[in-house]
Structure formats: structure tokens, C-alpha cells
Amino acid sequence: LTSIRYPGVQRGSYAQLSEKHVQHFRSILPSERVVTDADDVAAYNVDWLRMVRGASQIVLKPKTTEEISAILKYCNAENLAVCPQGGNTGLVGGSVPVFDEVVISTSLMNSIVSLDELSGVLVCQAGCILENLDSYVSQYGLMMPLDLGAKGTCQIGGNVSTNAGGIRLIRYGSLQGSVLGVEAVKADGEVIDCLSSLKKDNTGYHLKHLFIGSEGTLGIVTKVAIQCPPSPKAVNVAFLGLNTFDDVLQTFKEAKRGLGEILSSCEMMDLLALDAATSNLKLQRPIGEFPFYMLIETSGSNGTHDEEKLTNFLESSMASGIVRDGTVASEPSRIKSMWKLREGITEGLLHDGYVYKYDISLPHSSFYAIIPELKTRLPAEKVGRICGYGHVGDGNLHLNVTTRKFDAAVLKMIEPFVFEWTSKLKGSVSAEHGIGFKKTQYIHFSKSQSSLNLMANIKKLMDPKGILNPYKVLPAQH
Ligand code: FAD
Known about the structure:
The protein is an alpha+beta fold. It is 32% helix and 20% strand. It is built from 17 helices and 16 strands.
């Protein structure tokens, strides 16, 4: 067996699924949670971007940590490879099987364990959908410390396993800080209880970090303890039009100074990125046409004070000429439609055909330079769109090129060039989406050989047979 889309990748020497295995899974889980019907399994074999397609014949849907433990213990003993899957919104092909791995879906592990209203610590199962968690904690005056365009489908276990970033990282920081503890199951079925819900706990190694961002290669996350901040009393959003990228940077600098503690998001998009949402999803642009746009959000505790601060910031930015036009919203429905423009870009791009997607971190001074560079490198008649958007406040650019259909020649012109460029500027080849299946051969651009060796040793220690999410994260030679 070789991968359908990746002919160079060889299947590992794992066991093939047999009737004996299926029968055993039916002794662990009720029959309806052992899915073998080809039509029902099909959706679990394809990723959100429809770029990686596996050939798994089985999906297991456990509801408890004990069930996951029993499944993994058996798979390890039988040498069956597994692929953990959450909401399947990952953008690097990590969440789907490459060959015939057993899919372990956490979608039925969706219970809340506890919420401490005073500390704001939520403990829940890994399969809870992010948006549902946000609605739940909002009843107690709290919010989830992360937010992303896939919130209606992605699960907290997937978020933790990818160390997801998103649109509020600038305010609430990386998940590595907000996640206080995790419970996870190792490849051999052993349950690792690091489910501390304490803000401070310096007792030995911080083992939770083995699971935050390891993309299902070191264990399956079953429970998460996460710190939820109080929900803001007032939220305001400004949608701005700018002429140059230098103006974008200047505006970001002014926003940090002028808005200070209430700044909760600072996003940018170029005209072609915004156009993917307006033209392809038929969304309305709130201001005229500009080469660049910014979406700046404030969240605070005093509506009048926050609105005044934002209006002052906007007035002075427009008076100095760095912002050419702008509009401010404080009503939830208008805020939502402004956010829809930014969050709809990922989906809008898919409507172009094939998307070559890059998620890179760069120093602010060289953040946007790759876009004009690619415009000169790639023949205009071959590509539909070359655009950039992203979390400018975090130095994270989403660079996208689209063509009607996959074109190997275009890919060759982009890769490894984009990664070499990023590496030369001391950036990261994956700012927040992870490595998954699609970026393994490029990880060395952002990780030293000594780091890769240590990663391989940790993998061997935690999963000696390599059954957990094979072909992902670590480069093939490891
Ligand atoms: P999946 O896609 O199912 O899995 C992702 C990886 O985690 C896989 O390797 C999988 O094997 C592993 N995994 C999943 N659950 C578990 C578990 N319980 N235990 C162990 N391993 C597990 N990402 C960002 O960081 N920031 C963004 O702003 C952002 N915006 C997005 C917008 C859109 C429209 C879309 C489609 C995606 C976006 N993403 C973003 C990417 C994606 O949503 C995140 O990576 C998300 O955290 C994945 O969660 P999931 O539940 O869908 O995980």
C-alpha cells in the first residue's frame, strides 16, 4: 500500500485490520460506536481542505477515558496503527489516516466535568466543541481564552493537541499558558493524569506540555482543565482601510499604544484575501476598496470608556493619514458581520479551486514581503490568487496561492522556496497550524537537528511501536 495522493510515502509494517479485531472492538464498545460501513467511514478519511485522503475501514467512537485506554492497549498489543480525530478542521492533514489507520474519534466525549466560577477553571472532556464550551461558560460570565474561525466544529482536544492560536492570542496568550492540566492516554493504554487545575504548580516536569501541540503523536488527550477569563462587558470592532503595508504596521504600533489593555485582536488582510470572502461567499464589504484592511477589536469592562478610546485612536490615525477610512461597530450583529469577513476568508479561498496554504511566523519588518516576491515568481496565467491575511499582532501570516486545479509545477515553484525564505528570516514554517502530514519534510527549517533527535527519543519512549498517528509531525528518517 502507498498513499493515493503521496506516492512516495510507504505504509509502516503495521497489522491489517481483520474480523477478529472488529469483533474485539465490539467487545469494548457497543456495536453502533464501531463504524465499519464504508459510506459512514468515508467522511473520516478526508481532511477539511480535501487534500489528504486515507483508506481506513473503521471508526471507533469512545465516550470515556477507560474506553480509549482499552482500545489503545489492544491496538498496541496487535500492532494496529491509529489516527486520533477531533473536529477534523486541521489544515495540515494530521487528523485523517494516511493509509488504513484505525480512526479514534472523540466526538462523543463531550461532557463538562466541572466549572469553578471563582477561579474560572473549566474541566471537560476532549470532544467538547469550542463554541459550545464558550456558550456554556458565558452563562457564568466567562469566556474561552481562544477563538478561531472553526469554532463551530473544532474540539477542545483538537485545539490542545494542535496548540491552536487564533484571533485572541494577542490578548489571552498561547494555550500553553491557559491549559492548566490534561488527562491523556499513552499508546499502551496507560492513563496519564496531569489534570491539575491549579494556576501555579511547579512540582517537577510540566508533563502537560508533552500533549499540548504534539498532534496526537504522543497520546490521546481525554480531558482538559482550562482557565477561562471573565467575558468583557463591552466589545468594539473597527474595520479599517489602508494604502500600504507600512501603514498597517504603523497602525498596529499605534493600536498597542493607544488601546493598551483593551486591545483583544489585531488582524490584517489584503484586498485579494478579503475578496475571497466578499466575492466567493457574497459578503458585503463595510468600506470602500483599499490595498489593505485591518480588523481591530477591543474588549473591556466599561463601554463608554472603551468606545471613546477606540474612536480617539481612529480619529488620530485618520488625521495622520495612516488609516484612509474606517468604521466602528459596537452592536453584536454588526460585530459578527465584520468578523465574518475575516473568518470567511479560509472558506472563501476553497471556492477558487485548489489552495496552497502556508502559515508562517515572521518578524514584523518582513511580514508581507513574501507576497510581492511570489507575485514575481509565479506566472500570472497559472495562478488565480496570491494573497495574505492573518494575525498581524502575533507576526503570523497566512499566505495563500490558489489555482483552479492542483498543479504540480506551481507547487514546485512555491515549495521549498517559501520555507527557505521563512527560515532565512528566522521565522517559523508553521506558526499555529502544526506540522501534521503535509509539513514533515520541512520541519527542519524551524527545528535544529538536536531538537529533532530529542523529539524522536521522546516519541520512542512514549510510543515504542509508533502506532499513534504515524507519518505525522516527525520527518520520515526518524
Ligand atoms: P482535528 O483537525 O481533528 O485534529 C488536529 C490534530 O490533532 C490531528 O493531528 C489529530 O490527530 C490531533 N487530535 C485531535 N484530537 C485529539 C485528541 N483528543 N488527542 C490527541 N490528538 C488529537 N488554527 C489555528 O491555530 N488558528 C486559527 O485561527 C485557525 N483558524 C481556522 C479557520 C478555519 C475556517 C479552519 C477550517 C481551521 C482553522 N484552524 C486554525 C485550524 C484548526 O481549526 C485547528 O488546528 C484546530 O485546533 C483543530 O481542532 P480539531 O478538533 O478540528 O482537530
